[in-house]
């Protein structure tokens, strides 16, 4: 476990480790709530609460209870909530209140209430201001031959808005409103890596998910200390050596076929985007490369890769 | 997810779900401590604390703080602590204080302090009285052909002390003091399933671990409500169809090669030993059989399979 990987998995404290420290840390945040739902949907840093130009008509800020609540009329639906939140964020963007909103994406991420009920969507670049859970799908493409296992690793384009030039998972994408993880990863595989849909569908396997709370630091750009609770559905794709991923859009600069040792060295050199490093650690554990006998913090890492999040999460069940 | 599987994964509450309920539940237990270490090593049910014939020379019971502390002289080592605990448990067994001690195993389980330091061992049948973390290794043997994936499932001997006649993982065993997970599973594969060491070493792969807190109920026999925090290292072994596991000792009655559907049906009928059901759920997730699109509680289950335990745990690193 390198210091780099620790940064994401070890950045937000656990109640189990130190009850007082966990509780103390939360005093730096307001809980984000929506009227009609008895749930904490996210944590908003106190400094964000202070600067945000909250429209008073539909936001209630309680400094005592440290809550930020979107107040909606009875009968509000996801469209109305999304509109009110979009207006609020739009105004903050116009006033240039937050650096993170300079990276406006025009992509909407869904937010869920207890029971997996979809209740609104939020502009991607603003999700970290509210500390809501976001969802993605990450796939590791690899080949295996007599010389061992090799992974297809892309380098992000130098002009990408976030983490430019860093290494990434073979295919990865955020899940917008309405998307299911499997269809998301199949689509991204074609768009980002030019992997034909029939090849992907024939060989891809769902392998679980990783969940953690990332605390944004300087590497992400913009305000620091913002919370990003993330769910990444993980997939493996064992590829025939004849199949070569190639950049399909402007997101990726190149694909390299790296040995496990090469990937581990790049991880140690902090060349991977942080949440992609997390997915690779999970891959190494699932493939018997990182084991209880080789990693002193094995049990700690396995648990931290699957944090039980403090927020309601999605159900993507289609049955 | 069947009600059966929920019993183990869903039996001990999470702080994240309901802070008050979590804290309230803990008032039913004393924390188990050892002098010299600032850590909760386990939880002892209040009714156990009341009945246990604690030798006053080296136990301190604080009803106010709800602590049970083994008091040892400065310079105490694992051998001394183990001896004192063994004496105490032996006396309780002679007095027939607890039903669970009727299943005396003469096997010792290790207990660790923060940092993975081994500090004493405890008779296996008494581990649940103290609520200390125990460790095991579970392996799923399977074959894969054009008709799909099939799992080798054993039925436990009818005269086995615990969970007689129930279904189990292909190979599984508790880890005694000094054992490492990989060597444990290789040994058990020969003893329980007559799988040759060379076959196992050539094809077995470490796949991570599952961690959870099992609350003992009537099925386990003996006192109920005792806590069993468990770490199970999980392994997969893809077998050639020509390799047939056969009972190697008196623990297993027979091995059956079952389809995924057969295993799922047996899980629904509650035929599996509870912690083996947990390992199978993890297997189904890792093999893309249980997915986000087919299981409404997918995220909840994945996190619960990897509980961050409230206690210090082992490091089995040999480097």
UniProtKB/TrEMBL annotation, chains A, B:
Which Pfam families does this UniProt record tie to the protein?
DUF4743 (PF15916), NUDIX (PF00293)
Q: Read off the InterPro entries from this record.
A: DUF4743, NUDIX_hydrolase-like_dom_sf, NUDIX_hydrolase_dom
Under the heading Gene3D superfamilies, the entry gives: Nucleoside Triphosphate Pyrophosphohydrolase
Q: Which GO terms describe its molecular function?
A: 8-oxo-dGDP phosphatase activity
Signal sequence span is none
Which residue spans adopt a coiled-coil conformation according to this UniProt entry? none
Report the residue ranges that make up the Nudix hydrolase domain in this protein. Answer: 134-280
Under CDD domains, the record lists:
NUDIX_Tnr3_like (cd03676)
Segments traversing the membrane: none
Family matches, as PANTHER family: THIAMIN PYROPHOSPHOKINASE, THIAMIN PYROPHOSPHOKINASE 1
Q: What is this protein called?
A: Nudix hydrolase domain-containing protein
Q: Could you tell me which species this protein originates from?
A: Penicillium steckii
């Amino acid at each position: 476990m390198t210091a780099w990987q620790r940064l994401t998995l070890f950045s937000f404290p656990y109640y189990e480790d130190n009850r007082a420290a966990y509780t103390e840390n939360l005093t730096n945040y307001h809980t984000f709530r929506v009227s009609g739902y008895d749930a904490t949907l996210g944590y908003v840093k106190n400094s964000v609460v202070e600067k945000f130009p909250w429209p008073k008509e539909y936001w209630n800020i309680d400094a005592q209870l440290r809550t930020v609540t979107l107040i909606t009329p009875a009968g509000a639906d996801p469209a109305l909530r999304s509109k009110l939140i979009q207006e609020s964020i739009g105004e903050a963007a116009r006033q240039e209140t937050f650096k993170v909103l300079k990276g406006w994406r025009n992509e909407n991420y869904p937010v869920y209430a207890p029971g997996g009920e979809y209740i609104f969507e939020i502009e991607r670049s603003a999700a970290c201001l509210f500390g809501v859970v976001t969802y993605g799908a990450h796939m590791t493409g690899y080949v295996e031959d007599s010389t061992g296992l090799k992974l297809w690793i892309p380098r992000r384009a130098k002009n990408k808005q976030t983490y430019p030039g860093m290494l990434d998972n073979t295919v990865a994408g955020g899940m917008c409103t309405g998307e299911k993880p499997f269809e998301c990863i199949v689509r991204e595989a074609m768009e980002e890596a030019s992997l034909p849909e029939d090849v992907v569908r024939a060989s891809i396997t769902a392998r679980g998910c990783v969940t953690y709370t990332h605390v944004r630091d300087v590497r992400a750009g913009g305000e620091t200390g913002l919370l990003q609770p993330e769910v990444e559905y993980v997939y493996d794709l064992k590829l025939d050596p004849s199949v070569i991923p190639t950049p399909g859009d402007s997101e990726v600069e190149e694909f390299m076929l790296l040995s496990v040792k090469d990937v581990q060295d790049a991880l140690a050199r902090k060349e991977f985007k942080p949440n992609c490093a997390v997915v690779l650690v999970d891959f190494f554990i699932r493939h018997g490369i990182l084991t209880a006998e080789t990693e002193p913090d094995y049990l700690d890492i396995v648990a931290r890769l699957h944090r039980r999040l403090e927020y309601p999460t999605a159900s993507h069940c289609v049955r």
